[in-house]
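Subject: sequence -> structure tokens, single chain

Hey, anyone have a minute? Need the predicted structure for the following. Not urgent.
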Amino acid sequence: MAYVLAGGRGSRLLELTDRRAKPAVYFGGVSRIVDFALSNAINSGIRRIGVATQYKAHSLIRHMQRAWNFMRPERNESFDILPASQRVSESQWYEGTADAVFQNIDIIAAHAPKYMIILAGDHVYKMDYELMLRQHVDSGADVTVGCLVVPREEATGFGVMHVDATDRITAFVEKPADPPGIPGNESMALASMGIYVFDTQFLFDQLRRDADDPESRRDFGGDIIPWIVKNGKAQAHRFTDSCIRAADEIEEYWRDVGTLDAYFEANLDLTDVVPKLNLYDRDWPIWTDQIVAAPAKFVHDEDGRRGHAISSLISQDCIVSGAFANRSLLFTGVKMGSYSSVDHAVILPYCNIGRGARLKNVILDAGVRIPEGMVVGEDPELDERRFRRSEKGVCLITKRMIERLENE
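Reply:
Had a minute. Here:
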């Protein structure tokens, strides 16, 4: 059984998560972030899935009901959405990642899975979990932890593992100031992906033990895994061993799109001639809610008023009417008026860009209507006053920001 932890606030995405949890944030033109973990599970042959939700979960739950309702009990399949519902006590929501599993032990036990794969629901990557599960079984480990090889200086924001020559974990520390290096390659570190494989009964025993510890933070990375490292056998599984890459993908692609700049850059990665993440791979599809809508449309063919796009992803139900898109993603239902242009832009569903508007280095939240003639991305000081501007100069524009401008 795969158990997806999808309750994250995503506060570093600022206004982009004002109305939705981070796993529900749109990504890649047609998908949501949570679709990657769920698709990996389905493509890996896992047909029992649970998803724990908590903060601002309505749009996430609605998406999963629409996109992931094809599991059939008669085929020994199941898909459980598990909102925090005070099932253990009337005052207790999910207190941590481990508690989000502990509170649903009875539901998991009813499915009687032999193994549990615990997944974070807010990362973008393609991975065959079956290969990690095989390693777990073959090694006889109590827990197997998915990990990335990253430069040591970049590992300070992760849970980091110290391993021996056999990749057995000898120490696990959360967000260390001086991360331990990898034996034989001290400039690199092993960072946790937030993916864990357990024998189910062993996991239940650990969750109950942890629930009885008044000092615990009820967290896998902070409590459960360090305890097993000290008292049992914890094994590292390297992402390179199970990463799914299409023939033309060069590197192992994994992104935590937790900041505006990281989210912006990961979306624009998809516009490369040879994208680092291939969404066109039919052997490992990213499943999502397939909206019934008209094809994208480009109209007008006059000098200065020609509907066209370069190095861009244009989704269904979009109309590029005498407008220009460059290195941009237009999600479902975006309308661009004549003489408007977007350059390095991530435009979420059902936005409307008025005639003559010029937008550069922007993220538009869903449903935003850009007034005619508005210019963004050419005057940093003006952008700073009107919108949310990131460290790298990317402007996030929401409906509320536009309404405030119109009321001034």
